[in-house]
Predict the structure.
Amino acid sequence: MPRTPSTPSSSQVPLIDLVREHKVSDADLKKWAENYKRDSTKALAELLSFLVEASGCDVKITYDEVYDGDIDATVKRVVNDTINGQATVEDPFTTKKKEYKNFKQYFLEFWDKLVREAQDNETLINDDPFEQLISYIEKFSQASIRSCRYAASICALQLVSTFIRVANQLREARDTTQRQLQAEEKNKQKNKADNSRAHSLRRSLETLHRRVNTLESLMKQVFNGVFVHRYRDIDENVRVECISAVGHWCKTYPSYFLKDTYLKYIGWSLNDKESAVRSAALTALQTLYDVEDNHAPMDTFTARFSERVCQMVEDVDNAVAIKSLGTLTKMVKNELIDAEMVKQTYSLLLDDSPQLRQGAAELVNVLLTIKSQATMASHGTKSSEKGLVELFFLLQEFPDNPNYINYMVDALYEKSEVLKDWRCIIQLLLSDDDVLTDMYQLNTIRVLKACIVKTSGEKLVQGIATNKKDLTKQQREAVATFKQELTVHLMKSLPLLIRKHQADPVKSAELMELIPHLKLEVYALKRQEKAFVMLLKQVRDTFFRFSADAALRSCCSSLIHCTGPSTHESARPAAATVVAEVRQESVSRLKKVVAHALTLVANHDVMSAEEDYETLAALKRCYFLQHLGVELNDAKLHVLLAPLLDAVIDGWECSGMIVAAALKVQFEGLLWMLKQLNVQSPDEDVLQDIVYSRNDLMQKLVAMYNSQKDKDLRNEIYNLMADFFVIFSSEKVRGTKLEPVGFSPPMSALQCFWRHCESKLTMPSEEEEGPNEDVENDMLITVCHVSRLVAFDLVPAHRWLAAELVSHFTQHGKKVAEVIKKMLFKLKKVAPETLWEVYLGGMKKAFERYLENGQQSFHLAQFRELAHKISQVYSGFLISDRPNAAKIVRGGVEYAVTNAPRRLPFLVQGLIHFTAKISSGDVSTIVKYFDTIKPPVMDDDLWVPFYNYADHLREKVHLPPLKRMQTPASTPRPVVTRAPAAASLHQMQSRHQQARMQHQDQQEHHLQDEEDDEVGKDDEVDEDDDEEEQQLQEVKPEASPKQPSPAQSSTPPPKNSVEFERTCKSLAGKVDELGAYIKAINPTSYQKLFKDAINPSTMSAFVTALSFYYIPNGEAELALKTLDALSKVSRFSMVVMLMAKKDKELLALVFGAIGDEGLDIVSLQKLYRV
């Protein structure tokens, strides 16, 4: 081929512009094909230049480069020009510019059209341009430039997809030709003149077969040269494209690709670290399992990877979990896996995500259908009873929790027909056969109630955000029809069910909750008023039969609903009569039991168990009547119960549950008095009654809390106090006519309130196996009560309560910390000028706990962690932050020296974190204050924290260390030794401490996210921190005794780099053990240990050991030898480039602490780029 390169004319539009503007026509492709016939080198150079430009590299592939055929040199030149910044443009695939919108789609369409044009063009078939093109694409897909790899990869994948499309067309044509040839050969004996036609058909068949084989060989070339390397590319987008493509190939060309050789790549990608890749793999599997003919070839794959798909229903990414559920649904439906493998899916019906619950519902519905069909086939059950069988299996999976059943019904309602057949459920409940156990019967009632709620168009699961739209007219009519049919059916069924389960309080309570869903006017329309009255009497009898909270609450709710405005007027009179009877009987019974109790008090006797039950039941009935809407103030229950409560306070022995119920009845009566008050013109006498009752109740609450030790009673008193403080807060009614009702609780009440809160915040024992969910929820509710009072300024001592809460910020997990953060955020908006007092108060409270608990290192670590987190609130860069940080420092210094030397550790353990946040002027002021303090000579050892913190401040303003007092023996006091580097020992220790805390935070993923702007980010402090902080409190003499040698590692030295990395991961966060382990390895063996290369995670482990083990233990010389030996390991320079910024900062501290130990420090620092 003659080398006659010609430059394209200026009028010719580049391919990149044609593709970007979506203007590539068939004429353009034919023109390129004609150019390829005339000069293939030039046409190929143009095509390759387009590929390079599409990857964001402004480089042209020259004619000479293509002619020479040195692919490696060409790709290397493109990469070098791009890396050096000489030929970089915007990446068309990632840019958001409007002109590149849909560029990827147009780019892939171009290659698709090009392949089809090449196959249609006879000349190009004979001189196939794709073999050389694929060789270039293969090399570009291996380039170090990510955008170049991406463009080349999707280009190669698209080529295979188009090859498959063309191959399918050719195979179809080949099959047609084969059939024609067979028909022609059958007629050969009859008509010998047609031999020429048969010969022509054979030639066509051979041509088609050869072209198919050529395409398959090109597919194999792309797969082995591109896919096999790029499916594990570092770029997740490339991996996603590869897995999506191989799934498409398996579906569209199963005869070639639907084999374990190719399917295994999809299976391996199910374990990819990126959710997008896992999602692509599951999508590919779903499309394959949709086709029944694919099931047999995938048997081996299914057996190998089905367990992994089952595990993915618990994936951290909800989208992946939902796709795995869809994949499992197809596999179970086609009987490819055993239903027992996916039994854990039932628990996903309780998930908070509606999409995940819907995905699980589809799978569960398939499981129920399979089970019911198998049971009906084995037992000969009639098809009409299919719904009952499905319901029976469904009940087996329901836990004993009504909220869980609501979740399950909400998820399964649209998928399961049996849940819509409420008649079938009622039939099952009325059955006399012992088909269901007591638990199944209870769950069936709950299912019936949930189905009724769902069919009525109401929200079944509370707390989950859903885009619920208003019902249309047709839907409202359907709901009205349903309620009418339900009411007609339950007119006879509900009384029977209540009578059947009248001995069970739980089932009775669930049945009572069905009444508010009935359309009560139907009783009048059907002339069934007597039936309605009988139903109300059944409710009344149930109310007086039980004392369980659920039964009393449901009976009260049903009766009050029947008398409410939402009920038809035809039902109200009968309901009002029954409510009046219930009210009168409840008050009468309460008066009777209280009179009897007062008789026992007078006789110095106590209640029997039966008397306890009757008294508690009477109190509960009156409480629920008041709480749910029946006024009982005319009975003067607060006057009735006052003597009984006074007797308990005076020492009469009584059940805590009775006392709690009596206090709640009095509180509800007080609320009814407040509700009936005329807000516009309140009556003075009524106001005085409210104030008197309010003060009397508060006194009883405080006295009862102090005199009673029952934990449940104290919990109820605490909850009542919390509501009391909110409802009667003086801040809410200030400046109104109701101001006399406002209440400012005395300090004794608040202290009692906080004392209970603090008891709830007591850390659980470390010996407990795991966190108790009930204890955590109780703790969270307790903190919410206090936070509410503080955030809305409802009590006068809200700053004191805020400080108490802040002192517990780091001790009780992320949920409690989030509540406290939100409280502080609200407080910052309301009173930002007082926030520093809250922070300082919290630090003081935490430090006092350390002093009160015998100065244990555990409490000291908690205080240090809290101080560090609070210091992160003040960035130090904002001028507005500095005054408040300075106030904390000044207040903290005054606090520490007030009770010196006992409080002096407060300086070096807490205030040291704030030094970098304040201005030099504030530091100078504090330094002058320190100069006025004269520590006693005899107690100079206890004042070491004072001297160290003073020197720390003086160093910041470039002043010499504070002069020490001389001992009586005229022996000069040893001064704090300095590191051989430019920074002082204290500064080095402080920087080491801060770096170590940040390092621990990354290793152990403590409770706060990096976005926390209220309390900042910190680490999880361990016992090793106490040793470093102790160095700030001790003064080292110049001739100090020899330090004890650090502990030796119990772990044997590693045999290879894999074992070393595994051990380092297991020792993450254990600095001393990690340092001893690395120290046991001879530095001269590093090159042998890390043969090929050392990775960044390994280097990070070395940096950690050097910073927090070698240097603190005086191993500077060994640290230097370690650094020197590491610099000689293979690919060291590459690892240094990839080192994290934090590790480089730690290395700078290490080099600063080493000083001059005999090696060329400067050259070593250059190698480490420090």
Remarks:
- Residues 1-11, 765-770, 967-1047 have pLDDT under 50 and may be disordered.
